[in-house]
Amino acid sequence: MTSRLRKIRRIARGDCDLWLALRQGAAGFQRLLVLKESRDPAVCDDLAREASIVGSLCHPNLVQVHDFLSNEHGSRLVMEYVDGASLRLLTSARPDRRLGWAVASRIIADAARGLAYAHLASDPQGNPLYVVHRDVTPANLVVSTTGFTKVVDFGIARSRLRVPTDPGLVRGTFAYLSPEQSSGGAVDWRSDVFSLGVVFYELLTGKRLLGDTPRTLFAPLASGTPPALPASVPSTCEEILRRMITLDPSRRGFPMDEIADALETAVTGHSRSHADVAPVLRGEPGSTLSRHRTALQPSPQALHHATPPPTEIAVGQRRRE
Length: 321
Hints:
Blueprint: E1 4-12, E2 17-24, E3 30-38, H1 41-54, E4 65-71, E5 74-80, E6 84-86, H2 87-92, H3 101-120, E7 141-144, E8 149-151, H4 179-182, H5 189-205, H6 235-244, H7 256-268, H8 274-277, H9 279-282, H10 288-296, H11 300-305
Antiparallel strand pairs: 1-2, 2-3, 3-5, 4-5, 6-7, 7-8
Helix pairs in contact: 3-5, 3-7
C-alpha cells in the first residue's frame, strides 16, 4: 500500500500555503504532518532549495523535512508537525511580550544547538555544506508543548548545494538582519549568530533591538553595547548577548555550539530544564495560544475520514528532483 497525504486544515496563507495533513499507510498507520506548498515558480524554487538543504539534515532542534513533491500543480514540502507555537505567537500572547531570562536562555540554547548542527553539517562524502539560515526570527523558531525549540524554514538558506542566483539581493526579515546581510554582502554562520542574538534580546526585554528604517537599523548598537537589560538577567547572559550582537562579524567569532554550551550552563545552575519551558505554552482557557492549538487540532472525524484533495500526490510518485 502506498502511503498517501490528506489535507485536513489550512494553517496559514501567503507565498506558501501551510496545511495540516495526515499521512496514512498500511495497518492503520497515521501521522500528522505539515504541507508547505505553492504554485508560484519562484516560490517553488525556494521550496526546492529548502528541500535540498534540510533533507540532508537530521537534528532534534530542526524541524524535519520528510519529502519533496513536485508536479504540474506545484511543489510541496512534507514536514514534521510540531505541537506548539512560534516564538512570535508565544510572545505576542504575553502582556509584556517577554520571557524570564532562564526560559529565554533555554529556548535560545535549543535554537543555537540546531543551527550549530546545520552550520557544521557535511554531505555523505564528508564535504562541508556551509549552511546559513539567513532568516532567524521569532516566526521561525517553534516551541513544542514539551518545551523543546526547533528551527524552521530554510527557504532562503544558502549552502554549497544551492548556489544563490541573486547575488547582492537582500533577503530576510528586516528587523533581524545582520549588518553584512543588510548590505547585500557575503554572509556565513556569524550572520545567524547576530540574528539569534536579536531574538534573544527581544525575549529578555519584550522590545525590538534594531531600528525601524534602513538609516536607523543599527543605531541602537552604535555605542558598542546593547541597551539595558532587566536587572534579573545575570551578567553571564548579558556577556553572551553582547558577543552575539557585535556589529563587526570579525569580532563575532562565537560559534553556535559555544553559545548553547554557555547558556545551558547558566540555566542548569538555576535548575531550569525544558520542563520549565513547557508551562509557558499552556496559557489560560480562551487565551491566544489555547485558541491557536485548538484550531490546529484535527477532529476525530478528520483523522478517520479526511478526503484527499483533487491534486493529492501519492508519496513517492511523480517527484522531480
